[in-house]
Please model this.
Amino acid sequence: MKPRTILLAAAFLLPAGMALAQGAVPDVKTVLASADIDGLIANAKAQPAKPLIIQKIVGTGAYSANLEYRAGAAAPASIHDNENELMVFKQGTGTIVIGGTLVDGTRSNPTNQAGSSISGGKSQHVASGDVLIVPAGMAHQIVPDAGSAVVVITFHVPQPWPGK
Model:
């Protein structure tokens, strides 16, 4: 092996080895091939229609990226109190409503709220290739266009940044 290859391998394997030596099992999945993401989409399409099907793509500790398949009726509106949410629209078309207040809001867990819809938010049409970020604490809801499913890759970023 070339010295550069050995150094690169050590750089990636040493932290994992140290974690295992300390008895910790790392919660790490950092790569998923495009073909595998297409497989997740096919799996979601094959399921009975639901407003929201979520499948994990990659993640490490507090960070995760998920594939969200949204078809039919709108899933509940959400607020993530402590996470910004980056969205990359992969397939389909729809509308995202951002801002305003939740209608019939409830706390779904200690750091998230859900509601049936949003009152007073701003509507934005979304399509494949669009990218947006929803700041922590902001109401948001994705509504697929009639007859369309929306596929979104979401990345949740804790706020404040861990370690800061």
